[in-house]
Every structure is written in structure tokens, then in C-alpha cells.
Specification:
164 residues; alpha+beta; Arc Repressor Mutant, subunit A; Glutaredoxin; four-stranded mixed β-sheet; 4 strands; elongated; binds FE2/S2 (inorganic) cluster
């Protein structure tokens, strides 16, 4: 197995085991992708290659599925996942200014994660709390009526003490 991604030997063995369970079973692709992502948190290229090989599907097919479903990720995700709503109500009430402030404070663009592995920033459709627009969520916490100026204070609660 190609092992250029820095994963522990035991993790590669477990990945191998999952793939072997479904060897040649093309219909199990999504299930296998889920289990592999659960194991390591994302789906790097090397893992996709192994899955394609094991299940007998093309790499293009694997990549197509991974990029189609937003719950699959090809990059490591941060400990805290920040979702900014870009639904109509939030958009009209300033969610893009909130997103800009988040990008500035975190030093990343939407779709990326911070180098310290703490935050992943993403844009999503309606979060179902339009009355509180603009809305963001951080993991299971929801923040409504968010103003850009409130972002540093909100982030502070998730940063280790002493980190600005
Ligand atoms: S549009 Fe943002 S919560 Fe519905």
C-alpha cells in the first residue's frame, strides 16, 4: 500500500481491513468512504487510490463521489467547524461581512482550515434559524444576530487561553 500520507501503521492496517471487507463491491463505495473518513477524519488522495483499487472502481469515480457530497472532505478538518449561513435571510442581513471578518481573524478563506488544526471555515445554506439571521454555528453551538465586530469575542471562547 502507498503510504506517503503520514498515518500510523495501525491506521493503514485498519483502512486495509475496511477495504478488504468490501473487495470488488462497487456498490459499497459510499459506505467505505464513510468508514475511512470516520477513521482518519478526511480522505486524502492516497486513501482514495486504495479504495478505488480495492473496490474495483476508477479513481475518477471515487473522486466524483467525494467531491459531490459535502460531508466528505479531502483536507484535514479543524477541531471546530465554523459554518456561516449564506441563505437568503442571512445574506440580506450581512452574513458576507461576517464571513469576511472570520476570514480576516482566522487568516484563511472559506473551505480552509487553520494551520494549528483548530478551525475549519465553511459556507452553508440555510441553517433553519432565519429569524436570528445572520447566523453562524461552531460545532453544535448556534450564534444569531451576529455582527462582524462580535467575531473576535466569539472566537476567543474556542482558543486556548493566551492566544489572541
Ligand atoms: S437563511 Fe440563514 S438561517 Fe435561514
Amino acid at each position: 500500500m502507498t503510504k506517503s500520507v503520514e498515518l500510523q501503521k495501525e491506521v493503514w492496517q485498519e483502512l486495509d481491513r475496511i477495504i478488504q471487507e468490501h473487495r470488488g463491491d462497487r456498490a459499497a463505495l459510499i459506505q467505505v468512504l464513510h468508514r475511512c473518513q470516520e477513521l482518519i477524519g478526511y480522505l486524502p488522495k492516497e486513501v482514495q487510490v486504495q479504495i478505488a483499487h480495492g473496490l474495483g472502481v476508477s479513481l475518477g469515480e471515487v473522486y466524483g463521489v467525494v467531491s459531490f457530497y459535502s460531508f466528505f472532505s479531502t483536507k484535514p478538518r479543524g477541531k471546530y467547524r465554523i459554518s456561516v449561513c449564506k441563505g437568503t435571510a442571512c445574506y440580506v442581513r450581512g452574513s458576507m461581512e461576517v464571513l469576511e471578518r472570520l476570514e480576516k481573524e482566522l487568516g484563511i478563506k472559506a473551505g480552509d482550515s487553520t494551520d494549528d488544526g483548530l478551525f475549519t471555515l465553511e459556507v452553508v445554506r440555510c441553517l433553519g434559524a432565519c429569524g436570528l439571521s445572520p447566523v453562524i454555528t461552531i460545532n453544535d453551538n448556534t450564534y444569531g444576530l451576529v455582527r462582524p465586530d462580535a467575531i473576535p469575542r466569539i472566537l476567543m471562547a474556542y482558543r486556548p487561553a493566551g492566544v489572541a
